[in-house]
Amino acid sequence: MNSPPAGSTEVGARPSAPAEHPAPGSVPSKLAFTPRFPTSPRHAYTAPSLVFPTVMKKFLFLSLALFGATLLRAAPTREALVGRVETCEAILQEFQLRRQTAIPAVVLQHAKAIIILNQFKAGFLIGVQEGYGVIMVRKPSGRWSVPVLIQAGEASLGFQIGAKSVESVFIITDDTTPRMLFSRRFNIGVDAKAVAGPLAAEVERNQGEILNTPLLAYIRSVGLYAGATVKAGHVERNDAANFSLYNTKYTMPELLYSDWVQPPVEVQPLIGLMQRIAP
Fold it and tell me: Is 18 within the bounds of a domain?
């Protein structure tokens, strides 16, 4: 059988595609990478360059907030610890000088202990609140104990932007609640019920009901803080700070309930203030 002449096409045969010659410098087609989900050349591979800085900015904000909280936990000097006691004294004085925050005398008469806190809250996506305070108890003799330094903190969940300082006074109306701090972190409103304390205009009609609550809270906030949060405020003992402040190895139970440590001159004004407003 004769072969078809050159240049002819056999009947029923598929014509062969003309050979393609790659342009100089191009990659052969069988080695070229075709994206699974191709994008237009103008936007190709720009997403990582935009996402990475955004993620890093959020991480930076969070890191700064946590770093600031860590600084508060660094070992302070005795002078700084004295300043904490003096700040708590000033907070209580300011509460009592303002009609809208003054704690009524009948509430103070029921006080078995008092906690004064100074806190700073800052948040970006996750809130951070750190601070310090003092706790004092009324002894069986009726005299008030030395102020014992404590740490305060709070974790929050929810979208938050902003910062504010928070000054709080908690009147404790039973003998059990202060002792919870001896062995563990004390969660305000969880380990013991806490309600907003009555002011002078409210105390008469609420005296019987509210004064039996273990914790009566008086709180003043300064600044702007926007956000819906779930809060778990807590306080805990700070033995290291008290070792430095009182130059002793006695811990919270001995400082609060014994007379083994004589109050240094720096803490006597706060003791005197408590003795005057809650004799």
Answer: no
